[in-house]
Structures are given as C-alpha cells and as structure tokens.
C-alpha cells in the first residue's frame, strides 16, 4: 500500500483488513484498541473507516426495510464530505 503508515502499533493495511470485523463487532478487544488508536492518528484511515462504516450501516438499514430513505440521505451526505479522488491509480 503506497503511503502506508504504522500508527498505534498497526499498519494501514492491517487496519483495512480488520475493518469488516470492527464494524461487525466481532474483532477482539486487543485488535479493536489498536485499530481505534490507529484511526485516531491516521486521517486517511479515519476517513475511509468512517465512510466504510456509514456504508455498512446504510446497507443494513436498507436490508431491514428502512423505507423513508433516511439511510440513503445519510450515506450520500457522508460521501459528499469525502475529498474527490482521481479515477486512476498510481
């Protein structure tokens, strides 16, 4: 991963690998603490983790029949706050 950092004793790539478990609530306490410490010190992972979590919550709400469109609006508002990215990868 280009620009990978180690913050809180854990690398960006390891944080990304653990995000599904963190959001699902199935990650162990030690790993959760490391991820939270990393997110507090790495703005790139914090933004991605926030967007990832918001997406998962919106999808869960949709699957649970949230009919008023609130989940979609929250997701779109959250995504609109993220910085624009280039369509090409380096």
Walkthrough of the structure:
By secondary structure, this protein is mainly α. It has one domain (6-80). It is built from four helices and two strands. The chain has helices spanning 12-24, 29-41, 43-63, 70-80, and strands spanning 6-7, 10-11. A two-stranded antiparallel sheet has the order 1-2. A hairpin with a 2-residue loop joins strand 1 and strand 2 (10-11). Helix 1 runs parallel beside helix 3 (43-63), helix 2 packs across helix 3 and helix 3 (43-63) runs antiparallel to helix 4. It starts with 5 loop residues before the first strand and ends in a 10-residue tail after the last helix. The mean pLDDT is 83.
Radius of gyration equals 15 Å
Strand order of the largest sheet: 1-2
Largest sheet: 2 strands, antiparallel
Taking the alpha carbons of the first and last residues, their distance comes to 11 Å
Approximate helicity band: 55-70%
Report the order of strands and helices: EEHHHH
| Secondary structure tally: strands | 2
